């Protein structure tokens, strides 16, 4: 067995392997690149069948990035994975409040998850930002509530929480929303690496 050692060649070969799984599903080249990056991050070609990209999502994300808007995340893993240096070149930064003491305090007082409290703490800062949720379904439910009840509208929601309690339901609710473009995956699959892959794939297209 020949071991490929060149990182660029590894990536090129990976994309060649992935392409047959996505080329007939995503005819738009920008969407195809995002879907390919998601599959690459997951190491799972079955994702090709469950990735859902709103028709306005990629352009909305690009516009937000170029305009210097921030990315608001639910967990540190998403914040860590996003290419902050490249984002900063456009004036944006990646924000995460999950570890804030005030957020923890409010979550306990209100009997809600830290992720929900963190999204509430962002509040109006979510307006026109990119929201990237890779872990907590409750965070996604809260962002959708803020959009519906308080008209706090992000530019786009990359919502791919993972798990067996609320994840599929939160993503189904995301796809039903009529106010904010989205990128998501159906069902229980997802996770922080998927959110990171989707965002970085768009960032690298600019």
Question: Your description of this structure?
Answer:
With 206 residues, this protein is α/β, with parallel strands linked by helices. It has a single domain, classed as Cobalamin biosynthesis CobH/CbiC, precorrin-8X methylmutase (Rossmann fold). The protein has a six-stranded mixed beta sheet with strand order 1-6-5-4-2-3, sandwiched between helices. The protein starts with 6 loop residues before the first helix and ends with a helix.
Quote the beta fraction: 5-15%
- The number of helical runs is 10
Give the distance, in angstroms, between the N- and C-terminal Cα atoms: 37 Å
Strand order of the largest sheet: 1-6-5-4-2-3
- Named at the architecture level, the CATH assignment is 3-Layer(aba) Sandwich
Secondary structure: number of strands: 6
Largest sheet: 6 strands, mixed
**Parts with pLDDT < 50 across at least 5 consecutive residues:** none
CATH fold-level topology: Rossmann fold
Secondary-structure class: alpha/beta
Radius of gyration: 17 Å
- Mean pLDDT metric: 96
Keywords:
Rossmann fold, alpha/beta, 51% helix, six-stranded mixed β-sheet, globular, 206 residues
How would you summarize this macromolecular structure in one to three sentences?
The protein is α/β, with parallel strands linked by helices and about 210 residues long. Helix content is about 50%, strand content about 10%.
């Amino acid at each position: 067995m020949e071991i490929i050692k060149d990182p660029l060649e590894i990536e090129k070969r990976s994309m060649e392997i992935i392409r047959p799984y996505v080329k007939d599903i995503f005819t738009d080249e920008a969407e195809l690149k995002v879907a390919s990056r998601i599959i690459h991050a997951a190491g799972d070609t079955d994702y090709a069948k469950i990735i859902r990209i709103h028709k306005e999502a990629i352009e909305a994300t690009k516009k937000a990035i170029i305009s210097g808007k921030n990315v608001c995340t639910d967990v540190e893993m998403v914040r860590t994975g996003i290419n902050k240096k490249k984002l900063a070149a456009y004036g944006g930064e990646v924000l995460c409040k999950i570890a804030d003491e005030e957020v923890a305090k409010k979550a306990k007082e209100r009997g809600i998850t830290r992720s929900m409290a963190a999204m509430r703490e962002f509040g109006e800062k979510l307006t026109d930002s990119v929201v990237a949720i890779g872990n907590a379904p409750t965070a996604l439910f809260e962002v959708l509530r803020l959009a519906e009840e308080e008209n706090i509208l992000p530019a786009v929601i990359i919502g791919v929480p993972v798990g067996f309690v609320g994840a599929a339901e939160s993503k189904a609710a995301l796809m039903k929303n009529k106010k904010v473009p989205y990128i998501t995956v159906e069902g229980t699959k997802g996770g922080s690496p998927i959110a990171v892959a989707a965002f970085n794939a768009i960032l690298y297209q600019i």
